[in-house]
What does this fold into?
Amino acid sequence: MTDTDFRTLRISRAGGVATITIDNPPVNVLDVPLMSEIRGILLSLRDDPNTRVIVFQSADPEFFIAHVDMTLIDEPHAFDDLARDAPGDLNPFQAFGELLRQQPQVTIVKLAGLARGGGAEFVAAADMAFAAEGHAGLAQCEALMGITPGGGATQYLSSRMTRGRALEVILGGELIDATTAERYGWINRALPATELDGFVDRLARNVAALPTGVIAAAKKAVPLVDLRDGYRREHDAWASLFQRPAAEKLIRGGLKAGAQTRDGERNLEGLLRALEI
It folds into this structure.
């Protein structure tokens, strides 16, 4: 597959940096095509010696990745192909995040808009994330749909912030602004929106220009936390709640009320709270 063959992604390369622009209208929902294409590009870049840094951004300034596609509640087998490729002890969403975590290149998220649910998990799975003050926001909104996060968030947040703050994010379900996300440890930095592009581009170029071997050595010296036991606990908690009638009712109600439309996603937390049972 060439860089022009993707439907939901745009790929550009320069100076050892691959920039992946997510473009899956209307709100960049994390559906099967988007997950499959991100997985495909990560695997294709894994052994590419000419790519040292991968930057993820969005074609939509308002939405980075909205969340996992809620319509999948009516397509229980939609993720079967992805599930077959996942390690035996991970669900497809955890495996998706783990693929990003294990990428040999440095991965950077440039967050100019909103990322909720699986989108927020993607941000946390990257090596670094930088967000625009006054524009970017993060939320783990799963509790408002009667479930808990199932794609790694419980583990990512626990390793980045205090238990109290992680529980606040998971159970509060609120949209967290960039400045607060920085203070909590969810992202590296919150930057003025006018400075975000320049800062991330400069950092990516500088990292990509380091002598051969430095990136690999640094990532080896700063090892990833082994999350396997935590992933199992997370999946069991998520799966047990997903099977309950409340979750189905809230997810269907959210879709009917406007989730996954631009207007609905602008105040998704309020929309979901109005449906609580």
Summary: DSSP finds 13 helices and ten strands in the chain. The longest helix spans residues 193-208. The longest strand covers residues 9-14.
